[in-house]
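Table S5 (text form). Sequence records supplied for joint modeling of the two-component complex.
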Amino acid sequence: MKALILVGGFGTRLRPLTLTLPKPLVEFANRPMILHQIEALAAAGATDIVLAVNYRPDVMTAALKRYEQKYGVNITFSVETEPLGTAGPLKLAEKILGKDNSPFFVLNSDVICDFPFTELAEFHQSHGQEGTIVVTKVEEPSKYGVVVHKPSHPSRIDRFVEKPVEFVGNRINAGIYILNPSVLKRIELRPTSIEQETFPAICKDGELHSFDLDGFWMDVGQPKDFLSGTCLYLGSLAKRSSKQLTPASLPYVHGGNVLIDPSAKIGKNCRIGPNVTIGPNVVIGDGVRLQRCVLLENSKVKDHAWVKSTIVGWNSTVGKWARLENVTVLGDDVTIGDEVYVNGGSILPHKTIKQNVDVPAIIM
Amino acid sequence: MLQVPVRKGTGSAASTKAVILVGGPSRGTRFRPLSLDVPKPLFDVAGHPIIWHCLRAVAKVPGIREVILVGYYDEAVFRDFSRDAAKEFPHIRIQYLREYQALGTAGGLYHFRDAILKGKPDRFFVLNADVCCSFPLGEMLKLFEEKDAEAVILGTRVSNDAATNFGCIVSDGHTKRVLHYVEKPESHISNLINCGVYLFATECIFPSIRSAIKRRSDRPRIVSYPSSENLESSFFRDQDDDAEKNEVLRLEQDILSDLADSNRFFVHETKDFWRQIKTAGSAVPANALYLQKAFQSQSEELAAPSANILPPVFIHPTATVDPTAKLGPNVSIGPKAVIGAGARVKESIVLEEAEIKHDACVLYSIIGWNSRVGAWARVEGSPTPVGNHTTSIVKNGVKVQSITILGKECGVGDEVRVQNCVCLPYKELKRDVANEVIM
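The corresponding structure-token record, covering 803 residues in total, follows.
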């Protein structure tokens, strides 16, 4: 089987983290975001994976070489010379996606969920038509594009309504699809949108179905959602009683949903959780309070600091008695001084913060 | 030309008294919420009541045997303080004289002139209790004798911007003579300001006050300059009837400018620290200054510096401080206060029986009596720049108190953050708050 992951551009929405690493390599729950997707695709039997990118940094090529070997898949970069939207990249990769008659997966690289590729492929085969898109139930459909089904059919899609004012349904496009190679014939090689052009055309022919996603779903393309998505992901691990999670019986684990890399060091009298991920070689001092936060590799949180709703970037240091909250993001190698308070600060790499950041601000 | 040798003062021959003006309960409103529970002069900074610092300076002046506290608090208010001070300074007799109406600083002195003049002192110091300084009384006395002065005032330099909030002194740099004095001028006159500490010749000051009273009854006094300080006192004046009105006389407005015409009024300019203690927040810089002074003089009262004690720090002997807590600089921990493991206290006053739980952080704040700060809570004010004489700052266009103050028996929940707030007594703070007064 084949798959295409829409990676796109520089991931500016996830800055300052993406000033250091391309977005697919930023660790979500201690593993690069793209690894979650590659692993799930490989598990579902995908052998050819295309990454649709606007640019190809060396660091990404090197990382993906390793994943190719580890998961026994072929990974190809399909580099756009101009942005081709969400459908154009499919056409650009036609040689791979259309090399045989089997259907291929398409997914947005920002999406995190329990990827249901195997079930999705089975469902797609069962209805035998051109395309299936994964849909997820949302509380406020008025913010999204909503899927409306044909009357008297549970999965065949009738139309899409963008940001509906009146309730027409609560299922939205989750950014994960399985399509037959025939879909490629519907796409021209130009900047074009799969949501606005390709899908309505398939819909018209009655060839597009929906597949309900079980469990959580999140677009983690920006820091606020990255944190929310981490909470959902950890919650899902807990639900499955995953061995990856740090046991809640440990004295410092508070409220569960804590994922700590075995190489991390935790001090005395800490209270960690709920919803915390701690990366490799992280050092946590004594009396530290962590909740709803992500600590990336090699970062350090010193004694008695208090960290909530924050992403601590690689190699960064949080000082003693510092307090970080309200979607604070520290880039690579940032130092927060002792006793400093940061409220919603986005701190660019290599900065040292010695004074409070009282209101949300970008520190250049 | 022949000169009659008046008081060729040698310290031993001439006798000296001191008067400390302590004010009254209706005057300390700017010291709320702390003055809701303790009279301002008795509030502890650097481990001792504000007036103790004045008294200690007076007690060091050779020859002073008597100190008179003048104010309009109830007599009972200073009873315990006077008893303790009598033990600590056995050579000094301390008495409290109560005004039954606010007479003004000069009016009060005049009202109690018999008590002051008893024993025929040649001169007496007058100290406002609400200033924090090194009280260089010995140097003032030396200048007084050198110049054969009628009055010596303590002055300090402040920024030109700040000067108009104080009494301004124009002096002759060479002779140190005061040429002109004006209280809170509207325009810039001088950046040498009145510290609220004076030394008067008894034979001169009472006649000066008497003639001011006489002048007052002949010709009503011009309304003083508008400022918050004057507005408060003029409020009292308006309440009084005419007969009493004549007795309300303030040294600053009514006496000093006349003294400047006498040719025997001098200023001693101190280069040492000086701050007013007006607002409750100003207790934090006052605490810092007195602690630094104690540290420089190697006071035994202070906690020994260590990895977790950044000097200067005062810890009351009955307080309990966990060895992993980090304190200082400029911290006072009151009697029976409890500081938990891994707590951090900096530039703050923690009052009697207050508790700071483990891993909490207290910066630029006053934690009231019996108040509790929860685990991982953060109670925080803002630093006020050195030389700045205000305790408010502008944040997002709004004026807020730079020092966070928790009144008596307040509670801050675990992990809660309180920033630039003033919290009245008996309040529980369960959510984060910033830039507020909490009623």
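Note: Chain A has a mean pLDDT of 91.
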